[in-house]
Amino acid sequence: MKRNYFIVGLIMLIFFIISFLTNIIGPLIPDIIKGFNLSLTLVAVLPLAFFIAYGVMSIPAGILIEKYGEKKIIVAAFILAFLGALMLSLTPNYLTAAASLFLIGCGMAMLQVAINPLLRVAGGEEHFAFNSVMAQLIFGLASFVSPLVYSYLALNLKAGDSAGPFVSVLSALTPPELPWIAMYWVFALICVAMALIVFISRFPKVELSKEESSGSLKIYLTLLKNRTAILFFLGIFCYVGTEQGIANWVSQYLSVYHGYDPQTTGAQTVAYFWGLMTAGGVVGLLLLKIMDSRKVLIGFAALSIVSLTIALFSSPAAALIAFPMVGFFASVMYPIIFSLALNSLKEHHGSYSGILLTGIIGGAVMPITIGWIGDRWGLQTGMLLIYITLAYILSIGFWARPFITNKTVQLPFFKRKNPA
């Protein structure tokens, strides 16, 4: 089959947008607390609403894609996200924020399920691993960019016409007391533009293999009774819980405990968290060529725990470095856990992938649990919960027994010389 590089590029753009919309929530939390006068628990309901959508939509999205095809579902996903962003932009209050983030989350879940098999076909099966890694790097790049865009808008909205025509229009549409709403006007514009681009694009036909396609309810129930399947589901749950637990609360933490401005220093720290996660992914790829993935996971998880300890219990200056370093060391966790999971079961990988993706609800549960603990005993105490999730991820490196391990190469200077 002739490779469709336009569709590959479009998919990479979609990965960028998914990340751009998803990982902006954390930097916005301090301003949302201030704008709506919320407790830590109430503000944590917002990422809960977003990530619970993954638990609701991941498996149904696979079924819808098999029935209607990738193109229609991708267009529908962007329309759903557009409606969610528009709702919050026009009627900014706490209830519409929760409903809006749920709709956007449903759209993002539909996109995640649709674009992976499409990438395999459009880019070629033999290039799928490379393209998947490239997509993850682009995903991380968008997570780095979105807090910086917010910081730029927050600083320039008050300037009005002098900041340029686009910012001046956003300034007119955005309530002065809620500058973060400007991001959702940007999201609405992006989503409607993407829906139109996808609608006019020609998509290749995607034929899923038996192992890639969604299975029957009986297969899902069988997998849910499999101990190994559940243990790896918890691994994905803990990873996304760790990632979002830090990304959602680090700006508020730096504001409360160290007095840093959330619109500048806080947002920039979140951006560096995602930026170093991207850099860590590159380092992780190199290490996976020379080391067993379980050893890489153990090493990076242990260093994540060390970095978290420095971030929570050291000086303000050290915290600004240590929080992003947690992102650097967390970079390899998701792909390693996912690959170990699939390589630990011999069949039903399509259905199992849907179950693993449902583990993304960890991004819903952890932030609200941290917020609930934070309201009662302080945010620092709440963030101690991340030690539990990191410890579980560390344990995977010891108990995982995949049927297939990652292929490595032996470096010349590590080769053992045969005795003469």
Summarize the structure.
This protein has 420 residues and is mainly alpha-helical. The protein has helices spanning 5-22, 25-36, 40-68, 70-90, 94-123, 128-156, 165-173, 181-200, 217-224, 227-258, 262-288, 293-313, 316-330, 333-342, 349-358, 362-377, 379-383, 385-399.
Task: Describe, in plain words, how this protein is organized in 3D.
The protein has helices at 5-22, 25-36, 40-68, 70-90, 94-123, 128-156, 165-173, 181-200, 217-224, 227-258, 262-288, 293-313, 316-330, 333-342, 349-358, 362-377, 379-383, 385-399. The chain is an all-alpha fold and 420 residues long. It folds into two domains: 1-204, Up-down Bundle (Growth Hormone, Chain: A); 211-406, MFS general substrate transporter like domains (Growth Hormone, Chain: A, Up-down Bundle), CATH 1.20.1250. It is built from 18 helices and no strands. The longest helix is centred in the middle third of the chain and has 32 residues, at 227-258.
